[in-house]
Amino acid sequence: MQSLLDTYQRFRTLKTNRISALPIVILMPHSACNCRCIMCDIWKDNRNLKQLSEKDLRQLLDTFKRLGTRQVVMSGGEASLHPNFFRFCEILRGVGIRVTLLTTDLTIKKNAEQLMKWVNDLIVSIDGTGPVHDLIRNLPGAFEKIREGVQHIKHSAPGYQITARTVIHKLNYRIWPSIIECAGDMGLDQISFLPADVSSHAFNREVLWSPAKQHELLLDRDELPDLKNIIESIISRFGDEIRRGFVSESPEKLMKVHQYYAAFYGLSQFPYKKCNAPWVSTVIEADGTVRPCFFHARIGNIHDESLEDVLNGERGMQFRESLDIQTDSTCKKCVCYLNLPAGASVSSNENLNR
């Protein structure tokens, strides 16, 4: 009966633009990060640390309960740097909410016991084979620490789900096949791929990147044929991995990485997206800021009013009522999107970022 009610509430949200169900929440409890990634500016603001308190989290629980939140994705910054991170997870798990950690963390092995106890699953960021990953993260030894952590957990609990996400761009597209091989050797359950966001204010970009900065990650026009050939090779060479879901994307979705970069040169349209993130999820940042998704402007703050009032206040309602995913300039260039049908289960990450 509860599942039927959930389905109805999600359907009503999609039809009325008023949030009656909020199955997924992306929570950023801690603003700082211990990596210095080329494609992200979060670490540049490490000195201005912001973090949510246990009181903040407990106040959110009322809204989570009323709106039927089923999964909290811990993101950041590096969420696990919060001194009360595992206490947060314990509180969420205690009210029946699934906890996923999206992480670049270097302490997986050190925190393995706590992770396996309080976090349902991990999504780790992998940027390449060892040397390339460390170059992109600006952190020597980062890849080896992630590899050790993943293998340690998999040795202790083979059924514990650990997946990976890789941003494909100018610095790593040539070794894309090797990344898939590394993910398999590491013992990961799945790996997914997306192009680099270079055009939004997400990832702590107060000022949009200049064309010169964008082209540190954007492929050059004359590199596009090579990218297409590599994707075609992956589709042929890793056909079994694609069919059994180890590579998350279908051949058509893999080819959208090429389409995305080609669109910057007017050679194609940006890939079509089916996304309902602002209707089924929200992002809560370490200072309490609430956004409809990673890429759109703030609609309020949990320190000023309840999360439910933010979501269904005038600004939140107007945003959803006026948003056209297919024509909005931010959505058209989005690289990381969510589609959760009204009746879909929130028991895994299969609906995230597709």
How would you explain this protein's 3D organization?
- The chain is of the alpha/beta class.
- It is globular, with a radius of gyration of 20 Å.
- The model is unreliable at 348-354 (pLDDT under 50).
- The longest helix is centred in the N-terminal third of the chain and has 15 residues, at 2-16.
- 39% of the residues lie in helices and 12% in strands.
- It is built from 15 helices and nine strands.
- It has a nine-stranded mixed β-sheet.
How much is the average pLDDT? 90
Beta-strand content bin: 5-15%
**How many E strands?**
9
Distance between the termini: 29 Å
**Low-pLDDT sequence parts:** 348-354
Q: Helix/strand-derived class?
A: alpha/beta
The number of helical segments is: 15
Q: What letter string, H or E per element, gives the SSE order?
A: HEHEHEHEHHEHEHHHHHEEEHHH
Quaternary structure: single chain
Q: Helical percent range?
A: 25-40%
SSE diagram, text form:
Elements: H1 2-16, E1 24-27, H2 54-66, E2 71-74, H3 85-94, E3 98-103, H4 112-118, E4 121-125, H5 130-137, H6 142-156, E5 161-168, H7 176-186, E6 190-195, H8 211-214, H9 224-237, H10 239-243, H11 251-263, H12 277-280, E7 281-284, E8 289-291, E9 300-301, H13 307-311, H14 314-322, H15 329-332
Helix pairs in contact: 2-3, 9-11
